[in-house]
Amino acid sequence: MPDRTQLAKMFVELGVRPGGILMVHASLGGAGLRDTDVRDALLDALGPAGTLVVPAFSPENSLTSRAYKTLTDGMSEDEEAVFRASVPPFDPDTTPCPTMGVLAECVRTTPGAVRSGHPHTSLAGIGPRAGELLGDHDPHCHLGERSPLAKLYAAGAHVLLFRVGFEVCSAFHLAEYRMHPAPARRAYHCVWGERGHWTSYEDIVLYDGDFGAIGARLPRDLVTEREVAGKAVLLVRMRDAVDQAGVQMSGYRHGLT
Q: For residue 187, is it within any domain?
């Protein structure tokens, strides 16, 4: 397996820029890599002026997510009511993000890391621009114009998919918000403020079921690729990915939700 120095060299060869902004989705399972080594290699490639960002989503804090349904599967109504009353409120400093993988949790818990304040779709980051990019995340906007994704897009960020595919590329959600007419909206629920205090808000219906296909249709000259432990590592400019996803979605998405 590559060590920290070899990984950093590979990231630079892939196109990670010193001083750049990089949003990373990663799966380290079966790779024989330590999360701290991957984090540090990414920071080495970005240099002291660069900023590393990861999704730190917390879908467990929901009544309708797959994560919540898995946690409550098989419970009686009374048992689920007790469970709901015990769910702690989202806290950007302490709420874990286990479904995002060990690298995301590693970045989130790194001293000095910054995390945005959305109860479902926060992002965490390390670097000199983390506070600027992840601040002011509207708690009623998952991943749209009032979220860090729009700031990352405007700042020229890149997206790195480390041993995962485009099916988890959350940047594509920004394209959903930019569709015309706008997608349908729905209610979301989360615990906010106090333990067991469930509140609701409205936002667009998010759908990621076609993200893998969208990524497969991206022009190949937009994506650079390497391999680590038998799986692909992909790099693409966020602006290219979002703009191309928007073009694709506009061709078939309307009327599906």
A: yes
What is the DSSP secondary-structure string of 215-238? HHTS-GGGEEEEEETTEEEEEEEH
Quote the CA–CA distance of 36 and 17 in Å, as a whole number.
Answer: 20
Q: How do residues 183-239 score in pLDDT, each as one tens digit? A: 899 999 999 999 999 999 999 999 999 999 999 999 999 999 999 989 999 999 999
Tell me, yes or no, whether 117 lies in a domain. Answer: yes
Q: Is residue 257 situated within a structural domain?
A: no
Q: What pLDDT digit, counting tens, does each position of 137-167 carry? A: 999 999 999 999 999 999 999 999 999 999 9
Residue tagged 């998952």 (tokens): 142
Buried b (16+ CB within 10 A) or exposed e, 219-236: eeeebbeeebeeeebbbb
Three-class SS of residue 161?
Answer: strand
Q: Which helix (DSSP H) or strand (DSSP E) does residue 160 occupy?
A: strand 158-162
Domain tally for the chain? 1
Has residue 180 been placed in a domain?
A: yes
Among positive and negative, which fits the CA dihedral 11, 13, 17, 21? negative
27 burial type by CB count under 10 A (0-12 exposed, 13-18 middle, 19+ buried): middle
The β-bridge relationship of strands 114-115 and 158-162 is unpaired
